[in-house]
Amino acid sequence: MPEPHSESGSPAEGEHDEHDPEARARIVCLRMLATAPRTRAQLAEALQRRGIDDRVAETVLGRFGEVGLIDDEAFAAAWVESRHTGRGLGRRALAAELRRRGVAAETVQAAVDDLSADREEQTARELVRRKLAATQGKDDAVRVRRVMGMLARRGFPGGTAYRLVREELEAEGSDLELPDPDLG
After folding, report:
1. What is the DSSP letter of 10?
2. What is the per-residue pLDDT across 74-93, written as a single tens digit (0 to 9) for each?
3. Span between the terminal Cα atoms of the chain, in Å
4. Burial track 61-87 (b if 16+ CB lie within 10 A, e otherwise)
5. Which residues are CB-neighbours of 26 under 8 A, at least 6 positions away?
6. For the chain, what is the largest distance between any 2 Cα atoms, rounded to a whole number of angstroms?
7. Gap between the Cα atoms of 29 and 25, Å rounded
8. 155 C-beta neighbours (distance < 10 Å), count
9. What does the pLDDT read at residue 179?
């Protein structure tokens, strides 16, 4: 059945010419953006995988950027807020995730710099308390290894993690002697 056309002979409104590379690129991008926010690099990679010419992809991505459908700075800021609050990730892990999504280094740095050191430390302290509570009754050395491993995987600095674990164990009344990491 022929495709409906307007009087001008072009596809009717709402219809897309599947042979128009720009229309195909727009559809791919819009479908991806409808499911989740994406970075420019993620969209460019998807277009490349689908065989969209680089010039066409650049044109479509440029237009999407102009109208605000792609905004890596906003994406990075929202990502940092969401992943720090929801998953308790530290700056290092957040930066690594953003880099894997193709966000430019200066954008990554600006986004993680917006996470205050005090807030990052408070999140780490809450994670330490929860993990120590969950490992109550185990040997303190085992507890320390588990907490330190968890904090390292979440991207918290080793010195901060070590200090918080020592402080929280002392608050529990533990007699485990942990050396000061800054003195070694």
Report:
1. S
2. 999 999 999 999 999 999 99
3. 78
4. beebeeeebbebeebbbebbeebbeee
5. 60
6. 86
7. 6
8. 22
9. 60
Describe the chain by its helix, strand, coil percentages, rounded to 5.
65, 0, 30
- Tell me how far apart the alpha carbons of residues 155 and 83 are, in angstroms, rounded to a whole number: 12
Read off the tokens for 176: 């485990």
In terms of residues, how long is the chain? 184
pLDDT in tens, 15-74: 455 679 999 999 999 999 999 999 999 999 999 999 999 999 999 999 999 999 999 999
Angstrom distance (rounded) from CA 148 to CA 105: 28
Judge contact between 75 and 39, C-beta under 8 A.
Answer: yes
